[in-house]
Specification:
With 229 residues, this protein is of the alpha+beta class. The protein contains nine helices and four strands.
Length: 229
Amino acid sequence: MNQNHSPFPSLPAYSDEERIARAKAAYARLSTRHSCRSFAPTPVPRDVIKLAIAAAGTAPNGANHQPWHFAAISSEDTKLAIRDAAEAEERRFYGEGDVEPKASAEWLEALYPIGTNAEKAHLETAPWLIVCFAQRKGGIAEDGETQNYYVNESVGIACGMLIATLHEAGLATLTHTPSPMGFLREICSRPEWEKPLMIIAAGHPAHDATVPEHAMKKKPLSQISSWFD
């Protein structure tokens, strides 16, 4: 077994006060992040997306197999194909027309305050779609043979870092998870051992974009944490 190690990278020698201030500033920036469902067609440089994906690729992951792939899409034809396929699944989810909804009444009731429906215009208007794939096999060699570990956890962390980096770059994002998502594998020409996990739309918010009041309500720290000092 290869036991070669390198020294841990040096970290800045901040004082406790500086660490608190920096953590507070990071929280303040991230607290302004909200899902955007209405995008402007304003172009976003390819390099911004490349750097955000590179940042996502530094995420912690099982056995360092880095079990992810990000398909970055700006092609109008490809975005339209994704929208058409996603909306077909969404119509079944919401039960449009005479179709019995796939979603439970409880689920639809939970979504009601957000105001979502089967129309997903953002999949076409956002300048970039990033489709995140979880690689169940492949390892670093991506050979489809090596087993990967903690795949969903690893890719979930990477997606969070991707979204945080895009927000830091001044862009709005929206995660979208149509179900089922197998069509994304075909459209993006990915192998069968990859599982589409989510679509992240990225770009500038439209001038009339809004945030539902329901989405502005965040649980306080006392409800999302326990302390055992």
